[in-house]
């Protein structure tokens, strides 16, 4: 493309400081340096994790461009890039895969050492590619997709099938993959089992889809908002309950409902109290509980260790346990083969300039996934 090697001026949604609305600004996006790739974003999803940066509950360096669930086209590449070329359709990866660290080399690992979940706000080289009004603007989790153009490290990028519809497969960059993988890869749900899913947002619904795909016989959705029950049933839940309808602890309710037979529970909200509730809800001896929702950065959790002593397994799950560069292209191929339906998760598609409206839909509980298109 004619822009290779040049600074690109484009529109981006900037958070100048926490707890303030987005500001649509003209951004200068520098060319990629060695082992970096500049991408034209085609579609990006609004994820609750982005809202955590707005609220200040996840560490980030401000001003920042958030967004981490997207599809784009490679505009240009830096020196030494070998895995993608200009024109390739790609998904940026907030959880990279360097293929060299201990986690990448372990068959069961996926939490690459190159991940930026501690909020450094720069690429691997140590600086940012964004400038606005003469000031540096920082990256978020190595992706920063709420912009017309972004720059990522080569190890944080997956080349996907050119036929994939960008406004759908962007969900594979975070929400869908996280939930679906929590069930089939991290939790390892078994056929005929009973599952309980706490939180019926986009990721929770993806967990349900994973449980169903794994052959679970009973999938119980749990949420305070009963308006989410219909969609949960549509993607595979067998029944749904609201804790507000009961006076006893939800773990006791689930035990009575299932004859004390919840094999797998999933916390997909990111609240400390529901993490302990979910743990207490799975079978005391052989149950597995998976923490899927991103926890608040500064909080510590207390629980009764007897919940684990009796034999339960408590597992964490980042990005569904997938090795991002290896598995994201396969998930896109599975989507094109109609092995799962992402349309069930997308409730709103808006132009990028309406980003604030997209977040209002999230806050009001009206949306499951809002996708912004460019």
UniProtKB/TrEMBL annotation:
It is found in: Cytoplasm. Pfam families: ADH_N, ADH_zinc_N. Residues 202-336 form the Alcohol dehydrogenase-like C-terminal domain. The keyword ATP-binding does not apply. InterPro entries: ADH-like_C, ADH-like_N, ADH_Zn_CS, GroES-like_sf, NAD(P)-bd_dom_sf. This is All-trans-retinol dehydrogenase [NAD(+)] ADH7. The keyword Transcription regulation does not apply. Its EC number is 1.1.1.1, 1.1.1.105, 1.1.1.66. PANTHER family: ALCOHOL DEHYDROGENASE, ALL-TRANS-RETINOL DEHYDROGENASE [NAD(+)] ADH7. It is an enzyme of class 1 (oxidoreductase). Its cofactor is Zn(2+). It comes from the Eukaryota. Homodimer. Residues 34-159 form the Alcohol dehydrogenase-like N-terminal domain. Keywords: Cytoplasm, Metal-binding, NAD, Oxidoreductase, Zinc. Belongs to the zinc-containing alcohol dehydrogenase family. Class-IV subfamily. PROSITE patterns: ADH_ZINC. Its main location: cytoplasm. GO terms for molecular function: all-trans-retinol dehydrogenase (NAD+) activity; omega-hydroxydecanoate dehydrogenase activity; zinc ion binding. GO terms for biological process: retinoic acid metabolic process; retinol metabolic process. GO terms for cellular component: cytosol.
């Amino acid at each position: 493309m004619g822009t290779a090697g040049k600074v690109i001026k484009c529109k981006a949604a900037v958070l100048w400081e926490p707890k303030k609305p987005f500001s649509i600004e003209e951004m200068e996006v520098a060319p990629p340096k060695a082992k970096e790739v500049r991408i034209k974003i085609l579609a990006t999803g609004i994820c609750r994790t982005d809202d955590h940066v707005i609220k200040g509950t996840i560490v980030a360096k401000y001003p920042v461009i958030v967004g981490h669930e997207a599809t784009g086209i490679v505009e240009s590449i830096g020196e030494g890039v070998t895995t993608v070329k200009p024109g390739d359709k790609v998904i940026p990866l907030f959880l990279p895969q360097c293929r060299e660290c201990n986690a990448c080399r372990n068959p069961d690992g996926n939490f690459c050492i190159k991940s930026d979940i501690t909020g450094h706000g720069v690429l691997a080289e140590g600086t940012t590619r964004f400038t606005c009004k003469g000031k540096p603007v920082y990256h978020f989790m190595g992706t920063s997709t709420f912009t017309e153009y972004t720059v990522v490290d080569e190890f944080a990028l997956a080349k996907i099938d050119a036929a994939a519809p960008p406004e759908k497969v962007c969900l594979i960059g975070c929400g869908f993959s996280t939930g679906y993988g929590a069930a089939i890869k991290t939790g390892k749900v078994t056929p005929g089992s009973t599952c309980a899913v706490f939180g019926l947002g986009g990721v929770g619904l993806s967990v349900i889809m994973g449980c169903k795909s794994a052959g679970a016989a009973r999938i119980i959705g749990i949420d305070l908002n009963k308006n989410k029950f219909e969609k949960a049933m549509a993607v595979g839940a067998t029944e749904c309950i609201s804790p507000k309808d009961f006076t006893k602890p939800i773990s006791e309710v689930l035990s009575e409902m299932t004859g004390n037979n919840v094999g797998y529970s999933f916390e997909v909200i990111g609240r400390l109290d529901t993490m302990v509730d979910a743990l207490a809800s799975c079978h005391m001896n052989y149950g597995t509980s998976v923490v899927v929702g991103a926890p608040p950065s500064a909080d510590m959790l207390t629980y009764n260790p007897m919940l684990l002593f009796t034999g339960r397994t408590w597992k964490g799950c980042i990005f569904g346990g997938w090795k991002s560069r290896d598995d994201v292209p396969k998930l896109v191929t599975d989507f094109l083969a109609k092995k799962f339906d992402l349309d069930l998760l997308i409730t709103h598609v808006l132009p990028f300039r309406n980003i604030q409206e997209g977040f209002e839909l999230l806050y009001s509980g009206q949306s499951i996934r809002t996708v912004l298109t460019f």
